[in-house]
Amino acid sequence: MTQGTEMTDSTVAKDAIVGTWKLVEMKCVDEQGNISYPFGKDPVSYIIYTEEGHMSFSIIMSNRLKMGLLVEEIMDMGYGRKPKINIFKYLKAGVRYLQAVQKYVGYMGKYEIKDNKVIQHIEISVIPDLIGIDMERTLEISGDILVLTGSYPQYRVDSTLKRVS
After folding, report:
1. Which neighbouring-strand residues pair with 48?
2. What are phi and psi of 73, to 5 degrees?
3. What's the whole-model pTM score?
4. 71: three-class secondary structure by DSSP
5. Pairing between strand 54-60 and 44-49?
6. Burial of 17 (0-12, 13-18, 19+ CB in 10 A)
7. pLDDT, tens digit (0-9, with 9 covering 90-100), for 26-55
8. Distance of CA 137 to CAs 7, 90, 95, 109, Å?
9. CA-to-CA distance for 83 and 80, rounded, in angstroms?
């Protein structure tokens, strides 16, 4: 991997994005220029691009409420076992789980570079509707800073990331 490989003639070399990147800022900008922060101002996020062409992305809102369960109780719920806890504690945990999932996005798959764009072919996602789609992002690299921009009909998403490895 060549660290610090930058854009030349609007083409990005694949090795330029290989590595682990930590989110610095993510914002949405609508058609009127209004800025919003869909995961709050302090989300936690990483994106990993491998030399072999695989990628993984996760983002969470940093202030999610805890479910209030022990690890064993969470595992029981995940494997469909009958809960051994008070029904009210179980219901509260269920509501908090739904709230937590709304503040998390994660997906992985393969990627390719075309000109100044990264195309992520999503194979696994917590959101079933994303599986099988290609997510395209314009990319800019300057030293250890990566800016990914996703464009949609009524807004764009700008993500600034810093290389951590």
Report:
1. 20, 56
2. -70, -40
3. 0.83
4. helix
5. antiparallel
6. buried
7. 999 999 999 999 999 999 999 999 999 999
8. 15, 40, 34, 15
9. 8
